[in-house]
Amino acid sequence: MTRIVAVVPAFDEEGAIGSVVEEIRAFDAAIDVVVVDDGSTDRTAANAGAAGAAVVRLPFNLGIGAAVQTGFRYALEHGYDVAVRLDGDGQHDPSELPKLLEPLMRDEADVVTGSRFRDDDSDYQPPLARRLGISWFARLVSMLSGQRVTDTTSGFQALNRRGIALFASDYPSDYPEVEATVLLLKHRLRLVEVPVRMREREHGSSSITFLRSLYYAVKVTLALLVAMGRRYAVPSEGAER
Amino acid sequence: MTPVRISVAAAIGSLLLLLIVLELIRGRRLKERYALLWLATGLVLLVLSLWRGGLNTIAGWLGVSGYPPAILFAAAIMFVIAVLLHYSTVLSKLTDESVLLAQEVALLRARLDGLEGRAGGSGGLRQAAELADNHDEQEHEEHVSGEQRPRGPRVDV
User: Is the pTM above the cut of 0.80?
Assistant: First the structure.
């Protein structure tokens, strides 16, 4: 029996987090849910706990990367076979989970990413600035890694033990997904993208505004180029911290 | 040639810097690790201000013809940059370490909440069952200290 944990990072998501947790549990009660509360000042932790999730409360806001990593460390410490990451704002639909889990179950991948762009007739249309950024990073990462990657900013991911072990020990900080993609390819982990649909955010607005996108693009590009110059050891499966 | 007054003033300044750094180390207010760069700064500046012929020679090498004491400023600025860069690396390391500590605290607290059965979720209860075998005896103690632990970020000066 494969033990699966859903890692849900959340920062001030009291409005959405309860239904996100309930939805995952309703989809498959065998999936444990751990909500990583990234120093929220509202009732995020309480609502997540009431909905039936285990709650890991960070003592102060660490940012999305460190929050997600905390979830992977939780998965590693508790010996889960598979971790899936869904965002706390409800944009990732649990009914898409089987698509993400399938390549893992067939042992064809170590990490599976839900891509909004794999499907050519996808009707997902983000704002221009975001679309430009996303395609820039898709191209850059594809070029650097030699593997076609279409969506490097998706946080909808499933990982096996190797993937969990890698991200528990090393996960980038501010805008982590792009760097994480390069990181796992550098470590020779097998990445597979599957087409998924994502929903509009249920509450609040995306945290990425125009100026931030620009900062994001520059910072992540720099981090990518530096990361390519680093040497990486290929992690062993049993490695714990 | 460097005016004598500049040499004297610079030497006094460097000596003061050295004395302050040594005093800070003596009072354990500055770790030796961070003091080394400051000591090197003070020493080099002291040597450059006293050894007036040397200052002129170096100025000659670098093509500074009009005003040799400019070498003093250049050296001082170089060291300040080195110290700042060193601080940036120290800061980065401290950031990494505090993130790790925060994660560790959060994971431990989740386990503790599970042990005390007040996480409110099945995950917490399951953890409690998992851990109960090993921690039977420690549980009481942990419970007591758990009530006293600070609840948020706490700043100790």
Answer: no
- Here the tokens at position A240 are 């714990």
In which domain, by residue range, is B64 found?
4-148
Are the beta carbons of A36 and B99 separated by less than 8 Å?
no
Contact B123 A53 (CB under 8 A): yes
Coil, helix or strand at residue A23: helix
Q: Would you state the pLDDT for residue B1? A: 65
Q: Do B120 and A57 lie within an 8 Å CB cutoff?
A: no
Q: Which residues of A touch B127 (CB under 8 A)?
A: 54, 78
**Domains defined along chain A, listed by start:** 4-229 (3.90.550.10)
- Helix B139-148 to helix B122-135 angle, to the nearest 10 degrees? 130
8 A C-beta contact, residue A57 and residue B109: yes
For residue B153, tell me if it sits in a domain. Answer: no
CB pairs under 8 A between A and B: 73
Number of structural domains (chain B) is: 1
Q: Are residues B99 and A59, on separate chains, in Cβ contact within 8 Å?
A: no
The residues in A 80-99 lying below 8 A from B, measured between CB atoms, are: none
* Chain Cα centroid distance, residue A84: 8
Angstrom distance (rounded) from CA B95 to CA B71: 36
Q: Is residue B156 part of a domain?
A: no
pLDDT of chain B, 157 residues: tens digit per residue? 678 888 899 999 999 999 999 999 999 898 888 888 999 999 999 999 998 888 888 888 998 888 888 888 999 999 999 999 999 999 999 999 999 999 999 999 999 988 887 544 444 444 444 444 444 444 444 444 444 444 444 444 4
Q: What is the mean pLDDT of residues A102-115?
A: 93
Residue ranges of A 146-185 with Cβ closer than 8 A to chain B: 173
Residue B15 forms part of a structural domain: yes
Q: What is the pLDDT of residues A133-175, one digit of tens each?
A: 788 888 888 888 888 888 888 889 999 999 999 999 989 887 7
Q: How far apart are CA A97 and CA A116, in angstroms?
A: 14
